[in-house]
Structures are given as C-alpha cells and as structure tokens.
Specification:
The protein is α/β, with parallel strands linked by helices. Helices cover 50% and strands 21% of the residues. The protein has two domains: 2-137, Response regulator (Rossmann fold); 150-298, Alpha-Beta Plaits (2-Layer Sandwich), CATH 3.30.70. Helix 2 runs parallel beside helix 3 (60-70) and helix 8 (190-207) crosses helix 9 (231-246). The structure holds 3'-deoxy-guanosine-5'-triphosphate (GH3) and magnesium ion. InterPro entries: CheY-like_superfamily, Diguanylate_Cyclase, GGDEF_dom, Nucleotide_cyclase, Rev_trsase/Diguanyl_cyclase, Sig_transdc_resp-reg_receiver.
C-alpha cells in the first residue's frame, strides 16, 4: 500500500517516512501542499495521505478541500497532522474533508492503528466500487457475447441521435441477422449455436471503430449504431462486416461451419427519432432476407 506524506519540515518528514517504510508501506514523500496535490492527482496515486496542517503555500486543510472538490474517485483517505489541539480547528479540518487527524508530537502506536483503520476503509471502498462496476457491466451487457444488451444499445442510439442533433451530421444504424441460424441449432445443438453467436460478435467487434457501438438486439440479431457515418460509408462498413463473416468458416466444437449474415442499413439526418431509424433498418434487413440473404440492403 502506497502512502503519501506531506510536510515541509525535512527532519519530521524523513522520520515519518522511515517509520512507515519499516512497517512495509511504500512512501511518497512531498515537501509542500502543491507537490502533494500533484502526486494525489496522478495515475496510480497513493490512496492514503498524511498531510501536515501547517505548510507554507498550500496547507494540509487546503489540500483536503481540493482533493474532495476535484477527485471523486478513487477515494483517498486523508489524515491531517496538527499541533493545534483546539477543538474548533479539528472541526474545521474534518469539514474540509479530512477523514482523521493526528496530533504532533506523533505517538507511533496511535499512528499505526489510525493507519490500519484508514486502509480498511480504502479496501472496503475498493471492493464496493468493483462490485458496482461488475453490476453496471452485467446490467448493460449481453452475457453470451459481451456486446451491449438490447436496452443499452437502444439508449446509446437515443443519445447519439441527440448528440448529432446538436452538432449536425448523421447517425446510421445497421441491423444484422445470421442467416438460417435455426439450422445450426437444429443440426449441431444449442451450445454450438452459442459458439457461433460469440464468434460472430467477435468478428464484428474486430472490424468496428472504437466509436461504433454493437449490441445484441435479440436472439441472432445485432444492432450497430454508427456515428459520424452517412449512408454510403455505412453501406461500405456493412459490406465489410458481411464479408468478414462469410469469408471464412467458423471453427466450432462441431467442426468448421460456414455462416452468413444479412444486413439492413438506415442512415438519416438530424431530427429523426430512434424508432424511425430502427424501423428503416429493419425493413432493409427484411429486404436483404427476401432477396436471397448474405447481402446488404439500405433504406433511402
Ligand atoms: P433467417 O435466415 O430468416 O434469419 O432464419 P433463422 O433460422 O436465422 O431465423 P429464425 O428466427 O427462424 O431462428 C432463429 C433461431 O435463433 C431460433 C432460436 O432458437 C435461436 N436463438 C435465439 N437466441 C439464441 C441463443 O442465445 N443461442 C442459440 N444457440 N440460439 C438462439
Ligand atoms: Mg436469422
């Protein structure tokens, strides 16, 4: 665990660093509030900081305020060091966002237990954030393919349409559906069908730009939201997707299986609502199926 210390008294700073290092902590020692703030705002910053209240320049209390105002996450546990024992000063320190305080001269045993309490809080907070991120991911992604799920991809489309309306330009939608997928399930079983779904998703992800969004719309149907790309550009993209699926058979536990995709493209300017765009893409997909599958069709 990394601990930051900030104290402009060289002797005290060195002493504190030595104690902490003896206890096995990795120490980042800084001699001013400004330096401490930079270190706390850097990537992989220490999650626990011991800040001297009185420093020339930015004081410990000001560092606390700035950290709380400017950095929501990851949470940093802040301990103020003070020789002022007046109660109102402590209240001020805690109100500025400090989690705890220690008074100088330092009592080593007290430092040890207070640090342990702080680290426990940081560890609990890390666990909570991880659990929240896991749930957030689970709620927005399809568990089989890892793509955005139905609700999320629709939400993304609405957001992208609202954004394009502000900045101008167009958002395109591709609806893509695996051809005769039922046959794969019926012939080789549902699990092989799942393998194919996962691999189709993966091949699409490889081709997409980082700002394209791919969702599993349902069953063997996918929806792609393609920002900043109008009709011709999206048709070309859909064509690349189609080829990347049909070009090479899929390696599955039942052997190599050929798979094809039919795609419908809709591309409309600002002011169009999500429903209309999806309906247009759906109609185009339907035409692609009717006209023989393994092809791309586009709306007007
Ligand atoms: P078309 O070319 O007209 O799209 O024919 P299709 O066979 O692909 O379409 P159909 O709608 O008849 O069948 C889709 C099948 O996809 C039926 C359903 O059981 C299967 N399916 C839906 N979700 C999953 C899934 O998560 N895993 C697997 N293995 N199959 C699924
Ligand atoms: Mg299908």
């Amino acid at each position: 665990m990394k601990i930051l210390i900030a104290d402009d008294d060289d002797h005290f700073r060195r002493l504190l660093a030595e104690i902490l290092e003896q206890w096995g902590y990795e120490v980042t020692a800084t001699a001013s509030g400004e330096e401490a703030l930079v270190a706390l705002q850097s990537d992989d910053s220490p999650r626990v900081a011991i800040l001297d209240w009185m420093m020339s320049g930015l004081t410990g209390i000001e560092v606390c305020r700035k950290v709380r105002d400017e950095m929501a996450e990851p949470y940093t546990y802040l301990i103020l060091l003070t020789s002022q024992q007046r109660e109102e000063d402590l209240v001020l320190g805690m109100e500025a966002g400090a989690d705890d305080y220690l008074t100088k001269p330092l009592k080593v045993n007290e430092l040890r237990v207070r640090l342990r309490a702080g680290i426990r809080i940081i560890e609990l907070q890390t666990e909570l954030v991880e659990a929240r991120e896991y749930l957030r991911h689970k709620a927005s992604h399809d568990s089989l393919t890892g793509l955005w799920n139905h609700e999320e991809i629709r939400g993304i489309l609405r957001r992208e349409l609202a954004r394009e309306e502000r900045v101008g330009g167009c958002v395109s939608v591709i609806m893509a559906d695996i051809d005769h997928f039922k046959r794969i399930n019926d012939t080789y079983g549902h699990l092989v069908g799942d393998e194919v779904l996962r691999q189709v998703a993966h091949r699409m992800q490889v081709l997409a730009r980082t700002y394209d969004f791919i969702g599993r719309y349902g069953g063997e149907e996918f929806m792609l939201v393609v920002p900043q790309c109008c009709r011709d550009c999206t048709v070309a993209f859909a064509e690349r997707l189609r080829k990347s699926i049909s070009r090479e058979s899929f390696e599955t536990s039942a052997g190599k299986l050929p798979v094809t995709l039919s795609l419908g493209v809709a591309s409309l300017g600002a002011g169009v609502d999500a429903e209309t765009l999806v309906r247009e893409a759906d109609h185009a997909l339907y035409r692609a199926k009717e006209r023989g599958r393994n092809r791309v069709e586009a709306g007007q």
